[in-house]
Design brief:
Length: 408
């Protein structure tokens, strides 16, 4: 769960939420039984009934997916006992849509203190999952990472300790570079004040930096939400809260040696009101940053391209989805020729999964979006590509962790 989710829930709803604990569905979202992906428009949904990756109503959430080594790896937060805390599980899915680890998947990180996933990425030979683990009997948490092979073997039992004994952490986000991984996270300093850090790990899971690099600190600095790599440098997206209910998406370039190139950050979204929850992908020339945006009074999905030199190419953003009601929780992947942006759409019946293709010039190819999964109670979509097709995964409050392959 992101620090942004905690802050927005507390400030806008006037209630508290324990950091690191998953927020449930909106109270005003009706949950109905139907949740059937369908083919609509130019995108072809290859799995019209959905792929049940891990069955279970209400106990599994916030999935993330990445592709590498010929397979997709999906990880999620999971409650499997009477404990109020989550553990992290994973399962592989083939390009053909077969779940390779049936029966609920395998353990990635479990324990008695509460374990939560961030994002994941594939390196040269394995995936790295960003994780937090709560310390038993304490309010402190650790930052950890765990590698998983393409064969589904957990390579780091208990995880790799990255940072120990921190207060109110954000879920770590991970990007993969030529020489290993970059992991970024935030640690609380005070009210609405976090420090954003990054560190490198080798393909073998070795920490490469004697201490983390401080990317940004100060009042209003919140969580990093995504990391991508352009072949030379990483781009870390993070959030900045300003007074009077304003929030912007910032990005910072970090070298492969973990040196900060933009100490003040690059403001990607300076529209009025709140922009947050950014996701990032790279197409070989530019990055595409997508986010949820409140400039039109309902949340919409906007995007902007950012060059390798850190220049924002669309200063006012690109409107991807501006339908009535809210569009939130965007994710994006590149398949070698174009992008697929997916998001959680709040329609009359409740949340569904929608998506749109975008080209490398920033054009939206499916104005208004296409329905990928319809029904209600569908949350937190994530997407990855095998270089041609995509796998979109989401949380279904009735069915568990569900996916569908999408062909552009």
């Amino acid at each position: 769960m992101t620090v942004r989710s905690i802050v927005v829930a507390a400030l806008l709803l006037g209630v508290g939420c324990e950091p690191g604990r998953a927020l449930g569905p909106r109270d005003d979202a009706a949950v109905v039984d139907s949740s059937v992906p369908r083919n609509s428009g130019p995108l072809t949904v290859l799995d019209p009934d959905g792929i049940v990756i891990a069955a279970g109503s209400g106990s599994k959430g916030q999935p993330s997916v990445a592709f590498g080594g010929g397979i997709y790896l999906v990880v999620w937060n999971d409650v499997r006992s009477m404990s109020t805390y989550y553990d992290v599980y994973g399962a592989r899915v083939s390009r053909a849509g077969e779940v390779l680890d049936p029966g609920g998947g395998f353990e990635v990180l479990t324990g008695a203190g509460g374990e939560y996933k961030g994002s994941l990425a594939f390196g040269t030979s394995s995936f790295l999952v960003g994780l937090t683990r709560g310390q038993v009997g304490s309010s402190l948490e650790d930052v950890r990472g765990a590698r998983v092979s393409a064969a589904g073997k957990l390579l780091d039992q208990g995880g790799i300790l990255v940072a120990k004994g921190k207060k109110k952490l954000s879920a770590p986000v991970v990007g993969s570079g030529d020489a290993g991984f970059l992991m970024a996270w935030a640690e609380e300093r005070g009210a609405l004040e976090y420090d954003v850090y990054s560190t490198r790990l080798s393909a073998l899971g070795k920490l490469l930096d004697p201490s983390p690099t401080l990317i940004k600190s100060g009042r209003g600095v919140l969580a990093p939400t995504a990391v991508a790599f352009d072949g030379t440098n990483f781009l870390v997206a993070w959030e900045h809260w300003f007074d009077k209910g304003l929030m912007d998406v910032f990005c910072t370039r970090v070298t492969a040696g973990n040196k900060v190139l933009d100490p003040d950050g690059v403001n990607v979204s300076a529209a009025p009101r709140m922009e947050q929850a950014a996701a990032v992908a790279f197409d070989g020339i530019n990055y595409l940053v997508v986010w949820e945006d409140l400039r039109n009074n309902d949340y919409d999905i906007y995007a902007a391209r950012v060059s390798k030199s850190g220049k924002v190419l669309e200063s006012t953003g690109i409107a991807v989805a501006v339908a009535p009601d809210d569009q939130v929780n965007p994710a994006v992947a590149f398949n070698g020729t174009g992008y697929l942006v997916v998001w959680q759409h709040y329609g009359p019946a409740g949340p569904e999964v929608h998506g749109s293709r975008m080209d490398v010039d920033g054009r939206v190819l499916d104005p208004g979006g296409v329905t990928i999964a319809t029904g209600s109670g569908l949350y937190f979509p994530s997407v990855a590509s095998d270089g041609a097709d995509y796998l979109v995964v989401w949380e279904d409050m009735r069915r568990g962790i569900i996916g569908a392959r999408v062909r552009p």
